[in-house]
Structure formats: C-alpha cells, structure tokens
Design brief:
Length: about 190
C-alpha cells in the first residue's frame, strides 16, 4: 500500500462531505444571477488566481465560455488572466509580480464587466491589487476564497467562502463552486 492509509483517505472524503453540507447556497446563487444578467448585456468575465487557483481560473473560464451555453441565451465571454504566460511574465519582470493581474485589468476591463478572483487565503498581494483596480474600473467583483476570507472578502462585491483552513480542501470547494455556477447557468433557459 502507498504512503496514505485507508483511514486518511476516508477522513479526507468525510471532511469534504462536511464542507459540501455547509455550501453557501445564497452566495453561489448571487453569482449565478450576476453572470446570467451580464451575459445578456454582452459584458465580459475575467478570472484569475495563483497556483492551483490559476488552474481553477482557466477551468472556470473554459466552463463559462463553453459549458454554460444555454439555448436562447447569449454566450458568456470569459477569460482567464492566467492563460497568457507571455504577458503575465512580461508584467512580472517589468513591474512586479504584485501587479500581474492589475496591469491586465487596466488593459481589458470595462465598466459593467465581472472580475472573479480565486484565492485560498484571500491575502495574495497580486490578487488584492487586481481586485482594487477592477473596482476602480467599474467592474463587479467576486471572490472565491478559502480560510476565513482574508482581506479579499472585504474588497469584493460578492464572496463565496470555503470555510476550511487547508488549501487542498479550499481548492476542492472552489472547483465545486465553479461547476455548480456553470451548471446553473446552462440550465437557466
């Protein structure tokens, strides 16, 4: 058997089950309503995060752009600011890593767009700077956060918190959040 015994596996699954039972349904529904509304207005969605949250940002942008297609409704225009490695590293090199999302938001975001930040801790400087600039540009801001929400919780218009102090489980919940949101948007026709 590997390094992880059955009891550890069962505990991990049990902890996820307990988290699923505490999902913030009202907050998730607020994000679904927001995204359903902005797609009809032709606005765009920009998503970002670091590490595993960057992967979730890419996944979420893909799911919103394709998986949320609903008969008779506009398609959602979603983009992950983590997907252009060339631009991301240029901003990191020429300014600082703390500005990699903020600088892209300055270029792309228009009033009425939605900007979604994904952060396990809610305290990453580049994520906080991105949301600050998004608010200045007139975007509606959303945070998918873990732990107790960190500083990000108070910067965004809507937050969905996975109330867990372990990064892996917070990231698991962020993926669950985005899949629920996508499924609801697809089925909203």
């Amino acid at each position: 058997m590997g390094n992880c015994n059955k009891e550890k596996i069962i505990k991990y699954i049990s902890d996820l089950d307990a988290l699923l039972r505490k999902l913030p349904v009202e907050d998730i529904d607020r994000v679904v309503s927001l995204l359903d509304k902005i797609r009809e207005g032709g606005r765009q969605v920009f998503i970002f995060g670091n590490g595993g949250s960057a992967a979730t940002a890419s996944h979420f942008a893909c799911d919103l752009s394709k998986g949320a297609i609903s008969e008779g409704k506009q398609r959602i225009k979603a983009f992950a600011l983590t997907d252009n490695v060339h631009l991301l590293t240029a901003w990191a090199n020429d300014t600082s890593y703390d500005m990699v999302f903020a600088e892209q938001i300055i270029n792309y975001v228009e009033p009425g767009d939605v900007v979604i930040a994904i952060s396990g801790s809610g305290n990453s400087p580049n994520v906080l700077n991105g949301i600050t600039v998004a608010r200045e540009k007139g975007a509606t801001t959303v945070g998918l956060i873990g732990f107790s929400g960190g500083k990000l919780k108070d910067l965004v218009d809507i937050h969905i918190i996975a109330p867990v102090d372990e990064m892996e489980r917070a990231e698991d919940m962020h993926l669950v959040f985005e899949h629920i949101i996508t499924a609801c948007l697809r089925e909203s026709a």
